[in-house]
Amino acid sequence: MDKERFGRKCPLATALLGIGLSAVLVAGACGTDATARKDPGVSTAAAAQSGGRGDLPQGSEPVKLDPADFTTRIDNSYWPMVPGDKWVYRETDQKGTEYRVEVTVTDHTKKIANGVEARVIYDVVSHHGQPVEVTYDWYAQDKAGNVWYLGEDTAEYENGKVTSRAGSFEAGVDGAQAGIIIPANPRDGMAYRQEYYKGEAEDKAEILSTDEQVEVPFGHFTGALMTRDLVPPEPKVSEYKLYARDVGPVLDIQTSGGSSREELISYTRAG
Asked: Could you tell me the pTM of the whole model?
């Protein structure tokens, strides 16, 4: 389980249609919807402002984050997080088993070991009302508008009891490093790490398009951001994720290493 389109061709959408996603992604949607390489001793928030492919954290490289450059007010248009916001997803695994995923932005914050104050997001995966996985994720946004992932406290359940906490990490502890979830100004071809804790959390992503169409139970969206997410220690694992402006993540499809699908069924804004 996962916790964290005018005048040109859209080869990605075409390729996805070729693997059976035509009911979800609309091909041919090419429309008009809408600092140098950082030094580990320099604030990454400043280095990432130019938004170039090389300016975002990669692999296991260390980054130094200046807490003064960060805020718990997250307003990146591809995933705004306001306390009280809630997303509900339906996740279906490769065996056809359905899970309910509820993601809620809390009014709590946590000071991460690297000194950054992060917003706490509560993520619960359940099956027939029973918890399967419960996670507290930690996010913050830098001055440039990049949304950083600073770690998670996760627990897997079986018969009401915790069976594993694998995947938990905190930036600044035991070599763990923060990563980017959503860049400030996404552009096709950008690549970056999302998290790094050796052997536990090493996800990375590449932006494939910022002008996709996607339809899920909650609605139809244009101008969506699409990423391909990979896990280096598990080279066969690959998934596509789509983010709708002013909503956040709306669809997650595993295309290799499994065939799970997670789609947004409801979204409630705070207030």
From this structure: 0.82
Residue 20 has what pLDDT?
38
Res 103: pLDDT: 98
CB 109 within 8 A of CB 167: no
Distance CA 271, CA 105 (A): 13
Q: Would you give the distance in Å from CA 23 to the centre of its chain?
A: 23
SS (H, E, C) the chain: CCCCCCCCCCHHHHHHHHCCCCCCECCCCCCCCCCCCCCCCCEHHHHHHHCCHHHCCCCCCCCECCHHHEECCECCCCCCECCCCEEEEEEECCCCCEEEEEEEEEEEEEECCCCCEEEEEEEEEEECCEEEEEEEEEEEEECCCCEEEEEEEEEEEECCEEEECCCCEECCCCCCEEEEEECCCCCCCCEEECEEECCCECCEEEEEEEEEEEEECCEEEEEEEEEEEECCCCCCCEEEEEEECCCEEEEEEEEECCCCEEEEEEEECCC
The one-letter amino acid at 80 = P
Count CB neighbours of 39 within 10 A.
11
Residue extents of the structural domains in the chain? 11-268
Q: Which of 36-50, 173-187, 221-235 has the lowest mean pLDDT?
A: 36-50
Q: How do residues 24-82 score in pLDDT, each as one tens digit? A: 444 333 333 333 333 334 445 544 443 444 489 999 999 999 999 999 999 999 999 99
